[in-house]
From TrEMBL:
Any one GO molecular function term: beta-phosphoglucomutase activity
Domain of life: Bacteria
Pfam families: Hydrolase (PF00702)
Presence of keyword tRNA-binding: no
Xref: InterPro entries: B-phosphoglucomutase_hydrolase, Beta-PGM, HAD-like_sf, HAD-like_SPP, HAD-SF_hydro_IA, HAD_sf, PGP-like_dom2
Name of the molecule in the record: Beta-phosphoglucomutase
SUPFAM superfamilies attached to this UniProt entry: HAD-like
Enzyme Commission number(s): 5.4.2.6
Cell wall biogenesis/degradation is among the record's keywords: no
Protein family per UniProt: Belongs to the HAD-like hydrolase superfamily. CbbY/CbbZ/Gph/YieH family.
Organism from which the protein derives: Paenibacillus phytorum
Keywords recorded for this protein, A-Z: Isomerase
Length: 213
């Protein structure tokens, strides 16, 4: 049975996936690197430096690690400018209701995100206090598709991985959930992915039916 739900953050509880895209696009344009929507989907759930590597695949020149750090830093600055605009209104539709329903049923809720900006985002959305555990990019060595962030969330909750359900918008995240031995629910464009998710959600509100039938 499902005792805990581990929510991915970007692309699930808040549409900061668009902000990531815009910030990378701004950086890529400045560098004269081609960057389009299809590359955008490959950035979901993977770390900042790994995202940069995906973008640099389209570059004609090579970058030193010092230059790469600077580009990632620049992108993060652009991204933080966009995050400054976040308010509680920006929580994805249904997210507050779904979290409240879980809590009412005694199902624990946690965050499992690759983002180092997780604390800032949860604070701005006014959601931080709702989670029993937050595991994010600041605390892990390997990001999704490695299961580390989800296993850390389960450990913080003191719940066995097989009793956790992960909600994800990324291919990398679904793979990570599987490797962690957890159940998964896919939402967003990833519902059409070939990776087996246990459930596919068109809207976050459908989650309660998945958990309590
Ligand atoms: P940051 P998630 C991920 O968050 C994003 O999906 C991914 O696009 C981003 O590169 C990664 O966080 C790192 O974010 O630059 O803020 O540390 O989907 O795992 O919540
Ligand atoms: Mg995500």
């Amino acid at each position: 049975s499902i005792l805990a739900v581990i929510f991915d953050l970007d692309g699930v509880l808040v549409h900061t996936d668009q902000y990531h895209y815009q910030a990378w696009k701004r950086m890529a344009d400045e560098e004269g690197i081609v960057f389009d929507e299809s590359a955008g989907d490959r950035l979901r759930g993977v770390s900042r430096m790994e995202s940069l590597e995906v973008i640099l695949e389209k570059s004609s020149r090579t970058y030193t690690s010092v230059e790469k750090e600077a580009l990632a830093e620049k992108k993060n600055g652009y991204y933080r400018e966009l995050l400054d605009r976040l308010t509680p209104e920006d929580a994805a539709p249904g997210s507050c209701e779904v979290i409240a329903a879980c809590k009412q049923q005694g199902t624990k809720v946690a965050i499992g995100s690759s983002s180092r900006n997780t604390p800032v985002i949860l604070e701005r959305l006014g959601l931080l206090h709702l989670f029993e555990a937050v595991a994010d990019g600041n605390e892990i060595v390997n990001s999704k598709p490695d299961p580390e962030v989800f296993l850390l969330a389960a450990k913080k909750l003191a719940i066995d991985p097989e009793c956790c359900l992960v909600v994800e918008d990324a291919e990398a995240g679904l793979i990570a959930a599987k490797r962690a031995g957890m159940k998964s629910a896919a939402i967003g464009t990833v519902i059409n992915s070939l990776t087996a998710a246990d459930y596919r959600l068109h809207r976050l509100e459908e989650l309660t039916a998945v958990i309590w039938g």
